[in-house]
């Protein structure tokens, strides 16, 4: 029998004995992998206090020194890449190839944010007065609480920690209760470096307990959260009494617009990848398609063939696959229910449409639904699974209007050979990101941010980095 590891919270560079009451299971076969703590109120207090205690000295160091620690951690991540990828696949369910990409991208992201150390800039402003200088300084906020989802759990540690640390903040991370193992393994790597105690801390637990304690705490200066709209809204309420600054990435319902002049082969490939990669559990990937009538039959046929060809199952047991399971039973039930409701409203199953018969894991068949309408829940709510609903439109105008008619506004994509159609769509789509003729994955030097309920603020690049600072304007009259 495999040994079940009991992980412990990481506070001030020490693994603190705690009651490991949360079970972590492999979503591909429901086997128990580890037990992790539900951090107590005292432990959350201790983690925030450690981060607060460390912050002033950390911020006083030259930025290039802080960046050096990020580079050391990146190098340790690379040295352990294969082991980490296997752990991520085991607890999250993504295929190994994608887990490897996640691990390497995480290391690259730490290095990328480290590069900003010599590029952090303030401003010198023109004064209205004689003999006065006005300086705009950028300063760290203080203590950051990073609350993570489970879909890219390892990368999200770096996406929050790297900009926080290089700008002089300290951080307390709460991983998702679904995928905490990789975060504790990351903490083990941090513990092998000489990062000062308190700069990086991990407390594990559920949202209702540890998440609430962190977000209500007056000692937290920024809550950086990635997850669902409902939880984002609860976090805003928890943050309200302290007016705590928020950075929220709350998912999407990305429209893909396929015009009659599109390279259909490319569109089918990219949209399939969107629904198959990470089992469709990606905030920026295509969740609904608007296809022009002239090419609709052809597109739907090719999409169905492409989705039906997906090799899926248990990634560690079955080897080379395209897709693993959904994260848990609740996710499987939600996807199955959404498909049932859609077919009840007249959507037609072109391929898939059912829970897969694959043992104890949470597997759903790659599914294409045609004949969808804009009033159906499947075209409006986040599916977060391998299901693609398709609606036929008459032209680009209709597609843009339907795409914008959503409470989400994170990403969008357009497939066309017409430069003017692409430019018009880019101007008129009210989203944080638009991808033209390419897969839906952002670059680390971009800015990942959403309109409407998709969030507040954003991540990555210069603009993401400065979310972890506040400005201080100094007027010097000489
Ligand atoms: O997310 P939650 P869930 C969407 C996706 C998915 C749905 C539900 O549609 O099907 O959300 O997923 C912590 N105070 N996304 O339930 O609840 C929780 O412990 C503080 C989109 O897993 O948002 C976990 O660490 N924290 C998304 C984190 O919030 C709380 C990625 C995310 O959990 C809390 C994931 C509270 N009151 C899901 N309640 C994206 N943007 O990509 C929960 N948490």
Number of strands: 25
User: What is the CATH-assigned architecture of the largest domain?
Assistant: 3-Layer(aba) Sandwich
- Enumerate the distinct ligands: ligand TXE
CATH superfamily of the largest domain: Aldehyde Dehydrogenase, Chain A, domain 1
What shape does the CA trace take? globular
In round numbers, the mean pLDDT is 97
What is the CATH topology descriptor of the largest domain? Aldehyde Dehydrogenase, Chain A, domain 1
Number of domains: 2
Name the strands of the widest sheet in spatial order. Answer: 15-16-17-14-13-19-20
Active site: 249
GO molecular function, one term: identical protein binding
Family: Belongs to the aldehyde dehydrogenase family.
Keywords: Oxidoreductase
Draw up the topology in text.
Blueprint: E1 5-6, E2 9-11, E3 14-16, E4 22-25, E5 32-36, H1 41-60, H2 63-79, H3 81-92, H4 96-115, E6 123-125, E7 132-140, E8 143-147, H5 153-166, E9 170-174, H6 181-191, E10 200-202, H7 207-216, E11 222-226, H8 229-239, E12 245-249, E13 254-258, H9 264-276, E14 286-292, H10 293-308, H11 315-318, H12 329-344, E15 348-351, E16 367-370, E17 387-393, H13 396-404, E18 408-409, E19 411-415, H14 419-428, E20 433-436, E21 448-449, E22 451-452, E23 455-456, E24 458-459, H15 461-465, E25 469-477
Parallel strand pairs: 1-5, 8-9, 8-11, 9-10, 11-12, 13-14, 13-19, 14-17, 16-17, 19-20
Antiparallel strand pairs: 2-3, 4-5, 6-7, 7-25, 12-23, 15-16, 18-22, 21-24
Protein name: Aldehyde dehydrogenase
InterPro entries: Ald_DH/histidinol_DH (IPR016161), Ald_DH_C (IPR016163), Ald_DH_CS_CYS (IPR016160), Ald_DH_CS_GLU (IPR029510), Ald_DH_N (IPR016162), Aldehyde_DH_dom (IPR015590), Aldehyde_DH_Superfamily (IPR050740)
Organism: Pseudomonas brassicacearum
């Amino acid at each position: 029998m495999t040994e079940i590891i009991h992980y412990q919270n990481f506070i001030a560079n020490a693994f603190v004995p705690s009651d490991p009451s949360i079970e972590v299971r492999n979503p591909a076969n429901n086997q128990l992998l580890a037990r992790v703590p539900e951090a107590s109120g005292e432990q959350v207090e201790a983690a925030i206090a450690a981060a607060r205690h460390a912050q002033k000295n950390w911020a006083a160091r030259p930025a290039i020194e802080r960046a050096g620690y990020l580079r050391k951690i990146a190098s340790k991540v690379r040295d352990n890449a294969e082991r980490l990828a296997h752990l991520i696949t085991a607890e999250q369910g993504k295929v190994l190839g994608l887990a490897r990409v996640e691990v390497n991208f995480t290391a690259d992201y730490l290095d990328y944010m480290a590069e900003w150390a010599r590029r952090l800039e303030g401003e010198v402003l023109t004064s209205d007065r004689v003999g006065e200088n006005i300086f705009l300084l950028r300063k760290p906020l203080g203590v950051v609480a990073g609350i993570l989802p489970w879909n890219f759990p390892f990368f999200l540690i770096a996406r929050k920690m790297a900009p926080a640390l290089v700008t002089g903040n300290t951080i307390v991370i709460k991983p998702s209760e679904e995928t905490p193992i990789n975060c504790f393994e990351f903490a083990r790597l941090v513990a092998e470096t000489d990062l000062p105690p308190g700069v990086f801390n991990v407390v594990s637990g559920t949202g209702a307990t540890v998440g609430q304690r962190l977000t209500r705490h007056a000692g937290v200066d920024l809550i950086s959260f990635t997850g669902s709209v409902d939880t984002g809204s609860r976090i805003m309420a928890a943050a309200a009494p302290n007016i705590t600054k928020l950075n929220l990435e709350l998912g999407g319902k990305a429209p893909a617009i396929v015009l009659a002049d599109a390279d259909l082969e490319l569109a089918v490939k990219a949209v399939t990848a969107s629904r198959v990669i990470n089992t469709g559990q990606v905030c920026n990937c295509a969740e609904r398609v608007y296809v022009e009538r002239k090419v609709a039959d052809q597109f739907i046929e090719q999409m169905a063939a492409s989705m039906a060809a997906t090799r899926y199952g248990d990634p560690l047991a079955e080897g080379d696959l395209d897709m693993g399971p959904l994260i848990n039973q609740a996710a499987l039930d939600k996807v199955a229910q959404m498909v049932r409701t859609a077919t009840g409203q007249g959507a037609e199953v072109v391929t898939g449409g059912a829970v897969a018969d694959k043992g104890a894991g949470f597997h759903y068949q790659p599914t294409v639904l045609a004949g969808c309408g804009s009033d159906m829940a499947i075209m409006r709510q986040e599916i977060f699974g391998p299901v693609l609903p398709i609606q036929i439109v008459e032209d680009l105008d209709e597609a843009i209007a339907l795409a914008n008619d959503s409470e989400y506004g994170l990403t969008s994509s357009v497939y066309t050979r017409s430069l003017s159609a692409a430019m018009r769509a880019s101007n008129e789509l009210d989203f944080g990101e638009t991808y033209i003729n390419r897969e839906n994955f952002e670059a680390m030097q971009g800015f990942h941010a959403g309109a409407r309920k998709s969030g507040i603020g954003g991540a990555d690049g210069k603009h993401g980095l400065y979310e972890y600072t506040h400005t201080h304007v100094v007027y010097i009259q000489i």
